[in-house]
């Protein structure tokens, strides 16, 4: 059963909703809230590798890229890698940070005897600094995909979620207009995309909801292992260079090598237009 997404003007809709829920909560629901039972269960969390605008990975400078290069075999008949997941497995094994955007699919479940209404989701505990350098694997920016998702630019002046991919058009500042209702034991899948245009950032997500608690409550969503979410900009400072780069095929690669390993200096010269290919 899918969760219901309802729409209402922010101030009016939420005020009426609070009054209604507080007036109709059962003793059981209020007791669950007072007992500290999480109103929302996190049943699953998956870091998505495709269709999210990601522009590659950055790994620590000392990481050896040769095992990735050796594992990449191209299938000319089907126009793809023989093993499309090889890059992603290598990235996970080497503590890679997503570049430009990181996408996570999260499965939620209502954990109250009455509906839980999510009135807001926002990034919190945001920490941003200079973009990461190291080894940069950029085998091509992935497309946006066709799955509806919540998207926020973390290093913007006002990081709020937009809803992208709706049939009737995208919805800017989504939670100022909409809220999400989870019925008891109801499962709902959300895709979160956090973008970083200029900086390297870490953050968590805060879910604000209404249940048996007077005035509502919050729940923090972290990446697996209690870690924050993380992404770094694909633009680095003029004074910085990567230790090495595996460039995407669209980036003027001189040879037929599927995954050439080039120096950070040569890659920067390519981006500046000082050389035609690497």
Protein architecture, described:
The protein has 278 residues and is of the alpha+beta class. It has one domain. The protein contains 5 helices and 18 strands. The strands form 4 sheets. Strands 1, 8, 12, 14, 15 and 16 form a 6-stranded antiparallel beta sheet that branches.
List the main descriptive attributes of the protein structure presented here.
278 residues; alpha+beta; six-stranded antiparallel β-sheet; five-stranded mixed β-sheet; 5 helices; 16% helix; 35% strand; elongated; disordered N terminus
Set out the fold topology.
Blueprint: E1 4-7, H1 10-24, H2 27-34, E2 40-48, E3 57-59, H3 66-71, E4 74-75, E5 80-81, H4 86-93, E6 97-98, E7 101-110, E8 116-129, E9 135-137, E10 149-153, E11 162-164, E12 178-182, E13 187-195, E14 200-210, E15 217-221, E16 229-232, E17 244-246, E18 262-263, H5 264-271
What is this structure, in a nutshell?
The protein has one domain. With 278 residues, the chain is of the alpha+beta class.
Shape: elongated
What's the pLDDT, averaged over the residues? 82
In total, how many domains does the architecture comprise? Answer: 1
Oligomer kind: single chain
Report, as a whole number of angstroms, the end-to-end distance: 52 Å
Q: Indicate the radius of gyration in whole angstroms.
A: 22 Å
> Can you summarize the main beta sheet?
6 strands, antiparallel
Count of individual beta strands: 18
Q: Estimate the helix proportion, in percent.
A: 10-25%
Low-confidence regions: 1-13
User: What is the helix tally?
Assistant: 5
Determine the strand fraction and express it as a percent band: 25-35%
Task: Please identify the structural class as seen in this structure.
Answer: alpha+beta
Order of helices and strands: EHHEEHEEHEEEEEEEEEEEEEH
